[in-house]
Amino acid sequence: MEAIKEASQIPGVTTPPSLFAANLDVEFVITFRYANAGADAQTGDSTTPEEQLEKLLHTLDLAGLRTVVRDGGNGILMVFTRIRSENKLFGEVYRSRVRDWLHGIRPAAPETETQRSLEKEPLTDGERLRLVYSLITLPNSEGGAGITPKQGEWSLVESIFALHDRDFNKKWLKDWSTKWMIGPADLKIMRDRFGEKIAFYFAFIQWYFVSLAVPAAIGLFAYLFLPAYSMVFAICNCLWSVIFVEYWKRQEIDLAVQWGVRHCSTVQRKRAEFQFETEATDPVTGEKLRYFPAYKRLTRQLIQVPFALFAATCLAIIIAGVFSIEIFLVEVYNGPLKVILKFLPSVLLSISIPIVSTVLTDFATRLTQFENYENQDSYEAALTQKIFVLNFITGYFPLFLTAFVYVPFGEVLVPYLDILNVTVQHFGHDEKYTTSDTGFQIDPSRLKAQMIYLVVTAQVVDFVVETIVPQVKRMVFRKAKEFGNRRKGLNTEAVMDPPEEKEFLDRVRYEADLEVYDVTVDLREMCMQFGYLTLFSPIWPITALSFMVNNLVEIRGDAAKICMEMQRPIPNRSDSIGPWLHNLSFLTWLGSISSAALVYIFSSAEEGAPPKDLTLYGLLFSVMLSEHVYFGARFFVSYALSKVQSVGLETERKEKFMVRKRYIEESFGMENELIQQEDEKTGGEYTGVGVVPDKGGRPLKGGDLSEKFWRSQGGWRDGVNTGVQIMDIVRGKSKKTQ
Amino acid sequence: MEAIKEASQIPGVTTPPSLFAANLDVEFVITFRYANAGADAQTGDSTTPEEQLEKLLHTLDLAGLRTVVRDGGNGILMVFTRIRSENKLFGEVYRSRVRDWLHGIRPAAPETETQRSLEKEPLTDGERLRLVYSLITLPNSEGGAGITPKQGEWSLVESIFALHDRDFNKKWLKDWSTKWMIGPADLKIMRDRFGEKIAFYFAFIQWYFVSLAVPAAIGLFAYLFLPAYSMVFAICNCLWSVIFVEYWKRQEIDLAVQWGVRHCSTVQRKRAEFQFETEATDPVTGEKLRYFPAYKRLTRQLIQVPFALFAATCLAIIIAGVFSIEIFLVEVYNGPLKVILKFLPSVLLSISIPIVSTVLTDFATRLTQFENYENQDSYEAALTQKIFVLNFITGYFPLFLTAFVYVPFGEVLVPYLDILNVTVQHFGHDEKYTTSDTGFQIDPSRLKAQMIYLVVTAQVVDFVVETIVPQVKRMVFRKAKEFGNRRKGLNTEAVMDPPEEKEFLDRVRYEADLEVYDVTVDLREMCMQFGYLTLFSPIWPITALSFMVNNLVEIRGDAAKICMEMQRPIPNRSDSIGPWLHNLSFLTWLGSISSAALVYIFSSAEEGAPPKDLTLYGLLFSVMLSEHVYFGARFFVSYALSKVQSVGLETERKEKFMVRKRYIEESFGMENELIQQEDEKTGGEYTGVGVVPDKGGRPLKGGDLSEKFWRSQGGWRDGVNTGVQIMDIVRGKSKKTQ
């Protein structure tokens, strides 16, 4: 631990931390795929690999980066880069900090002298990598080299990635695996290495993990002592979810201030893929503006609605279909092969859902690209929203189906499943194979069983899949590539590495094959998990407890995944968990509805029996009541939290105050000077009687009358005398004056 | 019109506009009441009037103001003030602009040279008065004289007010009374004179007036061609209200940017009445901090809940009671004096509601004071919220009662009113005086009649009352004061004005007696009107049309009121209509519920007959559906509007960009200098082969291996060559290298 702290606190650049040393001072590796160049007709780029390589190295050189080229195997070249000189780096750091100040991300401008500025705020690994990365990828207009992998003129550039710091990773994983709580100091280290975006995910999951203690405790109590579908538990659970989300919003602000990234989402990263319709130069700013009409994008966004409906229908039909088959097989069918056929639905679902999901996700991505966003953030937010809708359906629809269709309406609907039976009969089977429709009874334990499956089994399976699949995938891909290259007659083994670099280059080649870490995938997972908790935990109150156990492992597993199975992430900045925050709020809202409905429908029933005596207005009324209580609670919680002092906002306020104070003092100085000038003209402070008041003072525009009026009382003492006289006269103590 | 434009566009301070001329260059008049000083024991201040007057004039003098004292009649002195010198004023202007810049209200810092800064942005009357006012009233710690009327050491200071500019007012009223539309130029003139807060009210009412054209047209169509309680009309009306509110939010931003007041609400005005519990000096900022614990305020705020319930119950009982009496008298009672007794309820209501309202408003004010807000804005917002609740009940409860209690349940409930009858019988009357309960039928036209009364008659009555009552009140108060003074033996007629000032001083005395204009009263009126429209307009679709006519007069009436019946308002800044915006949103939401319920209950009924076949789940379902459609629509409208370019935000963005550009150019300059220094050391751009790359460049920390690695390729051309060789080898074109 101490070692890690030390490494991350070494004061800045003049003695850069050792982590780059182990990587031969390499900052980024750019992989350049020359092998498929000829075959790759889709780019429409007629340059040869040699020309593009030359252009790449020249561009990097112009941007101030040094390069070394090595063989990457499998038909790629690896271009190792590092920034040419310290001064270049300092300049970038300074400019970036000034830009932050101008965008309101920093409260105070950086010290004008670079060296001092860096000593005061040393450069972290994260900041350095971020700056060099933006130097490579930003468009030329914003001072970067404009290299965008696989886009346009850079069709052969495959990826840009940083190298892992193995020593740090090892220490880090060991540290985290031996302690229970991830504290602010740990998050700070994460942030310094991997950037704020990833650090925010870990801060979130840690806060979520800690917060889960409350519903876990309540849930355990409810499980042991309260009746099933207890209203008390549902209310507590809802209330907790509201407080959790609202408090997280506060924490986000505090963290953002502490990490100096608040408002950084206002600085938009332009998307390279953005297609503009008209280009114009702004007459005021001289800035090149690329317009894409807002109404057009809005029209395109409207396609989301039919898409969401279509996707929902697709997935719902599949799920409901499989569900029907399952009910039929388990509860109606009684014919041959029942033992084997029982597994048919699970197999069907496991095959069909991932395929359909992949197709739909792909379509969602295309749709989002078609929506043509100007900025990376809006693009990501729009894609996230669509993915969330898909996940929402695949994740929650089965439970909704069981809870709100199968159980209440099962006795009415299931007999219709005999249509399957009729079909079966059609093929010559006879009626004895089905339980007759007179005897059918719904199975109320199905809901709980399904919930436990989704909450426990599915989580474990997911975790395993997440850990193993990428490795298998990587191996397969590698073999496939090697095979492909051999087939193309490429002599991939021919290039020899310099022997002393062999180990290093092998490591880099290994890392080049790793996948790119996408933090939104992990955030989505947590968000979905939170959804089970808010929407369905009355079904199985110890849901929260099981999630707590799961997340204890999950945090560490994710850390290990980043270190070992993924390329080192580019340290992006962020001041929030982004669009997921809205989704969390949305889930708390839906939770208020779903919990009320669950409690209303099921709490009246005996355990193990279908519910009785339900009325539609009773259901509507409980849902409405719950929803409005939820709105009230959310309003109250967010109001109350807004009144409690926030550490982050307080810090920000103070920093702003200091800036203000300094400036106001300066402007005060100026004003005093002005008054002094005036005093020199009028001869000191004006108090005496009879002195002509307006010489050098404010000119009177009201003419003679005005002059006479203002001269009638020479100074403030004169005024007091007049006033006292008037008072005396009115009170009858003396006779009139003036 | 031309004349007004000219007056407001005279470039600034060096030649101040003529309006102050007619007022003898007086900026503010401070009234000082010496007559009641002895009797006024509640202040606990033992200073004599003479001492306090001396202190007042001395303080003003120190703050840089000139003063002249004149008799105000009726036991008050009038202290005329103006700023001592132009330089003092310039200093204030400059400091205020710098402060604005630091708070993010201005995008760019003002020109450092004051004179140039003022030439570029001339001082408006509004800005001048605002600055001088803050010079008089701000606490000493913030650079003002700290004079707070009627508070603490200034117990005898009664009011601080500016003098009307009669010429401008005359031209302004004439101009507005002869044209239909109030345009942006007119609002700009308003803003320059009366400040942004009042200008925002006029901008709002004008936008509201124009927008009303839509529901007025739809309403007229519905009135003529659609059945009563048409769902189509209700939906259109709701949708319009959503768009209206969301679009206004946008307009607020545009106006705030245009007027240079955006974010000005973040600059908090401290409340003089704030009671702190602990005082500490901030270790970082050195600022004096006065704490009042947030949890304590939150606890105090919770008193609002019982208060609101109590107030609602009080008002509801009165209204429901009177309502019952009315129903009884009109529809059940048939005895003697019916003709006269029929008016009893109206009389009861007209007397009781204002009295109870006044008591409750007074209590709400005390409660808000007790909540002990630190800033003026939070205080006003909290008070506004309470007043809104009271107004909500008195304004809308009668209609809710008729629509949702009397009509649906009337036949069940009204017979119980016979309890009154029983009471009457008790006093010896006999049964023939009541229609027997068998024959009772509710009167469904009552709802529409009540709506028309509230929407037309009440608006007209309010307008007349608003115009006449203050004048009567003023006369009565003046007489009462004169009588009181005479009774105390004050010789108010004894002081003689200088003859040439007589006319002027009489005018000032007249204005001193006028009331202070409170823009929130007018905003409240509009907000309540908007409420009738969103909540109840299905009852009488041409409501919007009648409001349009009313508001055409209202705008001009309010302008006249400000000019003639009120003291000249202090030009306060504001970047919004403040808490009323939330209330408007709230009303649109409630409108979605109320409209759905109205349409569900009444649309099935024949005109003039009570509704039949209503079910509770039908009602709940329509309300829920409507509410959720409303949420969806609001989300969509606000999203769509956020994507349409806003003029204001665009302007702000451009201004910020210009500032950024200038600064970045400066920092670029610095960076280029650094690189030049470096280039001098390394001997120009590094491209050659064999030159030791790291002399003066970035030092390598990876040791020998690293150095060898980076030296292995001298410059970027070397890299290209290596790359091409590797490609050739792999493709089998040549033999291996390295």
Automatic annotation (TrEMBL), chains A, B:
Location(s) in or outside the cell: Membrane
* Topology class, membrane: Multi-pass membrane protein
GO cellular component, as recorded: cortical endoplasmic reticulum; membrane
Q: Which GO terms describe its molecular function?
A: chloride channel activity
Please give the coiled-coil regions recorded for this protein.
none
Chief place of localization: membrane
Q: Which Pfam families match?
A: Anoctamin, Anoctamin_N
Transmembrane stretches, by residue range? Answer: 198-222, 228-248, 302-323, 343-367, 388-409, 580-602, 614-633
The residue ranges of the Anoctamin transmembrane domain are: 191-655
Q: Which InterPro entries match?
A: Anoctamin (IPR007632), Anoctamin_N_fung (IPR049456), Anoctamin_TM (IPR049452)
Arranged from A to Z, the UniProt key words for this protein are: Membrane, Transmembrane, Transmembrane helix
Domain (Anoctamin alpha-beta plait): give its ranges: 25-157
Q: Write the protein's name.
A: Uncharacterized protein
Q: Which organism is it from?
A: Drechslerella stenobrocha 248
